[in-house]
Specification:
The chain has about 260 residues and is mainly alpha-helical. About 70% of the residues lie in helices and about 0% in strands. It contains twelve helices and no strands. Helix 3 runs antiparallel to helix 4, helix 6 packs antiparallel against helix 7 and helix 10 packs antiparallel against helix 11. It is elongated. The protein starts with 18 loop residues before the first helix and ends in a 6-residue tail after the last helix.
């Protein structure tokens, strides 16, 4: 995969925690983690008819995660956030949105490929919650993180986010009015990284979203961007055709971007 000079993103310096506060938080966290673990993992001496209870365990794992974080124990906090999410996904019915929030909390602690994976898992959970806009937002977060060490992974995630906004085959529009911002962000990233053909493909989809949501000012800028990108790849005929087609929009005909 393509890689940038920086192998890993910078991690924020940990906040200093008074020893007494950290010790109390750690003790509370370990107690909570042990309590939650007993609800999902059968230990020695358990009753014959024991069964896991992920519904009860999920909030306890989450509390443990926050306590570990307060104690400055980020790795333990990350693990508990992830355990809480796993319990929420195993619940009947699954708590997809809550699981996504715990996965995002874990992703903000994690580094490198692990962080990217957690953002992807959170996105999948939000798809289960039928929230394509936030699912796309999570993929963008993963893409931004991956861009510091793996451009190919970043490109894949940006494209996947845009697919949630505009389905590649059917053209169906998903997400909210903010979907255009996601496609614009991805388009600009591809352009900055010299992937002009990919940027052009997203420029066309950007126009589809802006038309759908009737965002006129942004639409005129998108028209102009498409024409400029087509000229950028040397396809003058295509650029001329697109420009003339866009001029059929009478509002664009009088806009500054058309001049």
């Amino acid at each position: 995969p393509s890689r940038t000079p920086n192998s890993q993103p910078a991690r924020a310096a940990p906040t200093s925690v008074p020893p007494a506060v950290a010790a109390r938080a750690r003790a509370d966290a370990e107690e909570l983690r042990a309590e939650a673990t007993k609800l999902v993992k059968k230990g020695k001496g358990f009753k014959l008819f024991w069964s896991p209870d992920p519904d009860r365990a999920a909030p306890i794992f989450a509390k443990a995660a926050h306590k570990f974080k307060a104690a400055g124990m980020d790795d333990e906090a990350k693990a508990c956030f992830t355990e809480s999410a796993s319990c929420q996904l195993a619940a009947k019915p699954p708590a997809f949105a809550s699981a996504a929030m715990n996965l995002s909390a874990a992703a903000k602690i994690a580094e490198g490929e692990e962080a990217v994976s957690l953002w992807e898992q959170g996105s999948s959970a939000l798809i289960g919650a039928m929230d394509s806009q936030r699912a796309a937002d999570f993929l963008v977060q993963g893409a931004k993180h991956a861009s510091t060490f793996d451009l190919d992974t970043s490109a894949r995630l940006y494209n996947a986010a845009c697919d949630l906004i505009v389905a590649p085959q059917s053209g169906e529009i998903g997400g909210s009015v903010l979907g255009g911002e996601i496609i614009q962000t991805a388009r600009d990233w591809f352009l900055r990284n010299g992937r002009v053909s990919d940027a052009l493909a997203l420029a066309v989809r950007h126009i589809v979203v802006l038309k759908h949501h009737e965002q006129r000012t942004a639409l005129h800028k998108a028209y102009c961007a498409q024409t400029v990108l087509e000229l950028g790849i040397g396809d003058v005929v295509r650029a001329d055709r697109s420009y003339l087609y866009h001029l059929q929009d009478t509002a664009y005909l009088h806009a500054d971007e058309a001049q």
